[in-house]
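Q: Given only this backbone (199 positions), what sequence would you predict?
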């Protein structure tokens, strides 16, 4: 982070930043990404639009930072001693109600990414790439413990499998993802694909 960027960020306290992100997510749920404006964020958060642009550069960066801040767990903070324990712990960080709300939110953002290059780029840089790196660390620990063979072909597809289970529940069954569904999915699909025993 440059000295100028550090100076800019120091003007907003962590508490104020968290409050602002919650307001952004609230607006996103109400109107969707395309209809969300920096004017509306400024009004909702009692901020100046100039401050928002100076701090975040634009709508895409602000929305993605809010989404990242709103994530209830960080993959890199979970280490239960087993891959199954790590993945189950990740699922249980969100209750079913929150998971349903966040699933709907992410579907809306995913749709908006199709025609907003800046949103797609920010989403990849701020969310997807860090998550993939974190999951690789989780898998690296599992390989080091001898749970997964280092040449297992499914190693490169853990994130794909996890996102697929989360996203397709609504598409295929018109049901939101739940802790019970995702835990069963991990045991029935993800772990066997990695060669990990679930009993």
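A: Predicted residues:
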């Amino acid at each position: 982070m440059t000295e100028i960027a550090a100076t800019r960020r120091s003007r907003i306290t962590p508490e104020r930043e968290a409050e602002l992100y919650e307001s952004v997510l609230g607006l996103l749920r109400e109107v969707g990404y395309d209809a969300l404006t920096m004017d509306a964020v400024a009004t909702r958060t009692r901020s100046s639009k100039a401050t928002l642009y100076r701090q975040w550069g634009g709508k895409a960066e602000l929305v993605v930072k809010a989404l990242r801040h709103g994530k209830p767990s960080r993959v890199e903070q979970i280490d239960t001693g087993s891959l199954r324990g790590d993945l189950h712990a990740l699922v249980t960080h969100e209750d079913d109600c929150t998971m349903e709300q966040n699933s709907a939110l992410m579907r809306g953002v995913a749709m908006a990414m199709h025609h907003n290059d800046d949103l797609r780029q920010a989403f990849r840089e701020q969310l997807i790439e860090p998550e993939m790196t974190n999951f690789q660390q989780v898998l690296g620990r599992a390989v080091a413990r001898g749970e997964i063979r280092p040449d297992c072909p499914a190693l490169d597809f853990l994130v794909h499998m996890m996102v697929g289970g989360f996203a397709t529940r609504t598409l295929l069954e018109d049901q939101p993802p739940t802790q019970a569904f995702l835990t069963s999915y991990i045991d029935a699909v993800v772990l066997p694909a990695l060669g990990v025993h679930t009993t």
